[in-house]
Amino acid sequence: MKNIKIWAGFITALCLSTVVFAQKPAVTLKMGDPAPPIKIAKWLKGEQVDEFKKGQIYVVEFWATWCAPCRKGMPHLSELAEKYKGKVNILGIDILEVSKVADKTIDYMPNVERFVASMGKAMDYNVGADGPDAFMTKNWMNAAGQRGIPCAFIVDGNGKVVWYGFPPSGMDEALELLVAGKWDANSPALVAEMAKKKDDQIMEIQKGYTLAWKAKDKRKQIEIIDQIIPIVGVNNFEGGHWRMYKYKFLTDIDPVAAKAYGQEVFKTYENSPIMLLEWAESIMGTTKLSQSPIVDENVRDYDLVMQIVKKAMEHSDLQDPTVQAIYAQALYRTGKKAEAIAAMEKANKYLATSTQHISEEQKAEYQTLLANYRSGK
């Protein structure tokens, strides 16, 4: 029953993998319109872009440090930046940093700067931040009626917005057509159709997965996951979750294969701290006391967990309370109690001074975790 609940939560997460931030505004920016101006409060990485150059294609993707789907999509954007180097200029624009805190005047820029610096190769493209006047949010997101992040806009060589939306729902397909010189007036509808076909294909495959789940046929589940992963990709939210479930089933039926697969996935995500930390939590349990680990306790590979967490720490904001809390848990699970307590104390310290919205529930959970580590629970 617990696994059924976990699976239901996974499907819900996939369906809600964009973060909604406001009611839908009126649409004044449509596909085919000239792109709004670029006005960035501060450029944090890469080339400064103040205007769209003739003949150059741009992807303008909006994100926030607190948006998990945004962070998980960054390695794929880096892949696109490399794939289309010299042809496509990718801009990651941070927005809405104060949307979840009461004090709207808080200085959020240091937190964003630390985050960008920590991401390394996982965020290997141009990055800027919107200012307190929210110019980019208002003139791009709001104008296009987009109310969720991540959200990407593609600007063609003539400075027109040819496509926008949730990146997994057509960005790659639109970009491929545009770079190949095949974009025309019918392309937005074609991209929408392609995205729908992909979704329909996945949903059809998932029917078989559901039957295998009910039959507790883990080998069949792995077989079906291997069909899904090439469709959804690897360096994104869905790909990471499907690989985690494949790993979980392997730990149940073939520990040797699970160990090899764990190392394979580690290599894939070694430059993506957000994916590594999520993997570590999936194996050993999250820092949320109400959530159970995916992997059963008797087959958890804590050596892999520590390997994952140590690598993630190399590319993480060490003042992020969540990073310290996951590190503390990994230390505690591997018998390093004193180090775990020290890391959890840091997590609570950074939580108290965080510029992001922190719930009372999270504060209480972190205090409980610290107390548990001290008492040896």
UniProtKB/TrEMBL annotation:
Database matches in InterPro entries: Thioredoxin-like_sf, Thioredoxin_CS, Thioredoxin_domain, Thioredoxin_ResA/DsbE_sf
Pfam families: Thioredoxin
Domain annotation Thioredoxin: ranges: 29-183
Keywords assigned by UniProt, alphabetized: Redox-active center, Signal
UniProt signal peptide: 1-22
Keyword GTP-binding included in the entry's annotation: no
Annotated PANTHER family: PROTEIN DIPZ (PTHR42852:SF13), THIOL:DISULFIDE INTERCHANGE PROTEIN DSBE (PTHR42852)
Protein name (Swiss-Prot/TrEMBL): Redoxin family protein
Organism for this UniProt entry: Mucilaginibacter mali
Lineage: Bacteria, Pseudomonadati, Bacteroidota, Sphingobacteriia, Sphingobacteriales
